[in-house]
Automatic annotation (TrEMBL), chain A:
Organism superkingdom: Bacteria
Name the UniProt record assigns to this protein: FMN-binding protein
FMN-binding domain: residues covered: 86-163
Key words of the record: Electron transport, Flavoprotein, FMN, Phosphoprotein, Signal, Transport
Originating organism: Massilicoli timonensis
Record Pfam families: FMN_bind
PANTHER family for the chain: ION-TRANSLOCATING OXIDOREDUCTASE COMPLEX SUBUNIT G (PTHR36118:SF1)
Residues annotated as signal peptide: 1-23
InterPro entries listed in its UniProt record: FMN-bd (IPR007329), Ion_transpt_RnfG/RsxG (IPR010209)
């Protein structure tokens, strides 16, 4: 009885100390992490529209798993931050679409798929093949990297559908 | 001398990956590029040294029956704290390493060294063991990732971990037409690992055979001296 009490209390104390240390580190780092994330987000939005002064965050409607955030650039243009599946970790990208359905800008933030194959979705050739097209019409995927690029194209279609449904 | 021997044991003779077969899962997954290899092994070294020191410090009061759960709580807390610190103060490093940092918790090198070494030795020796084993792990990762990156992409490069767009060096050794992209896949990891592990095993056998021969020679010498 005494033994089991000793064991229980010892483990509880170790867990409590570890928990305390975690809580302390969490308190210390949370504000910095949040600030970093906000700054990084603003930074990546600036890549698409360097001249825009402010990006208004738009509240999400419906329950999309791929649309992470929406920002408004001007009266007719919206930036979608999307996260889509891929071969391994998938792609995080931003796409700017206006209410006419024009695909204005595309920028891949990260791709966690096979280096040299899936990561082609972050390259300029893919970007060039998308920009200037209609976002709700068929878009070219990358041959040889279909598993990574198809979800991106589907994500763009989803964003276009979202504009049609909620933002017009 | 003994201390030095403990410290260098992890480099080749008792290399955690190629000789003790610890932490193979992470080695196979991470060894695709030099950048991943270095980032992962630095994080592992920090956690390994700290966890070895803490576990060694409480080794005399830790009840034997619950030592494993105690180790796991300590290791998990350490990894999480380090992950939070990296996210806060080196966000670029965090995006580069991503999921590899939390995966350190399940890296069996750390629990393995806690059980095999830190629970039986003093704090200083344990820290040294952690550092030595960590360097061994880093060595293993570097060798594997250099081979795999070279065969899969034909390029050896290393980018600044705090700013991935800034290349420190980049050399193309194999022309793009002759690369074997299979080596960036898990199957390439297994091939590379098997060949390197076989090499280390051969080296160890060689050392053993040499030691045996020496023993024999010494015994013969003694016998001869006696007879004379």
């Amino acid at each position: 009885m005494k033994k089991i009490l000793h064991l229980t209390i010892f483990l509880a104390v170790v867990a409590a100390v570890a928990g305390g240390a975690l809580a302390f580190a969490n308190d210390l780092t949370t504000p910095i992490i949040e600030k970093n994330q906000l700054a990084a987000e603003k930074e990546s939005l600036k890549i698409l529209y360097p001249e825009a002064s402010d990006f208004k965050s738009v509240a999400l409607k419906g329950d999309s798993k791929t649309i992470q955030k929406i920002f408004q650039v001007d009266d007719t243009t919206y930036i979608f931050k999307m996260q889509v599946a891929g071969y391994k970790d998938g792609t995080v990208f931003m796409v700017a679409i206006n209410t006419e359905g024009d695909l204005l800008k595309y920028h891949a933030i990260s791709n966690g798929d096979t280096s040299g194959i899936g990561t082609k979705v972050t390259e300029d050739a893919f970007k060039a093949s998308l920009e200037g097209k209609k976002a709700n019409e068929p878009l070219d995927t990358i041959s040889g990297a279909t598993v990574s690029s198809k979800p991106v194209v589907e994500g763009i279609h989803e964003a276009a559908a979202y504009v049609d449904e909620y933002l017009k | 001398m003994n201390r030095m021997k403990n410290f260098t044991a992890g480099f080749v003779r008792e290399n955690p990956v190629f000789s003790l077969y610890l932490g193979i899962c992470s080695t196979l997954a991470v060894s695709t590029t030099l950048n991943n290899a270095i980032g992962m092994s630095v994080a592992v070294i920090v956690v390994l040294v700290l966890s070895n020191m803490i576990i060694s410090a409480i080794r005399n009061i830790t009840p034997n029956e619950i030592r494993i759960p105690v180790y796991i709580v300590i290791i998990a807390a350490l990894v999480k704290i380090i992950q939070m610190l990296i996210t806060a103060y080196a966000p670029a490093l965090d995006t580069a390493l991503g999921t590899f940092i939390p995966l350190i918790v399940v890296n069996c090198i750390i629990l393995g060294r806690a059980e095999a070494f830190a629970s039986k030795n003093n704090i200083f020796d344990s820290a040294l063991d952690g550092l030595g084993m960590g360097i061994g792990y880093m060595f293993a990762l570097l060798v594997m990732s250099a081979i795999r990156q070279l065969l899969a992409t034909g390029v050896l490069n290393f980018a600044n971990p705090f700013d991935m767009t800034q290349m420190i060096f980049e050399i193309r050794i194999i022309p793009a037409e002759y690369v074997i992209s299979m080596f960036s896949q898990p199957v390439g990891a297994f091939f590379t690992f098997a060949i390197l592990a076989a090499g280390v095993a051969a080296y160890k056998n060689h050392l053993e055979a040499k030691a045996k021969e020496q023993e024999k020679a010494e015994a013969a010498l003694k016998k001869a001296a006696k007879e004379a």
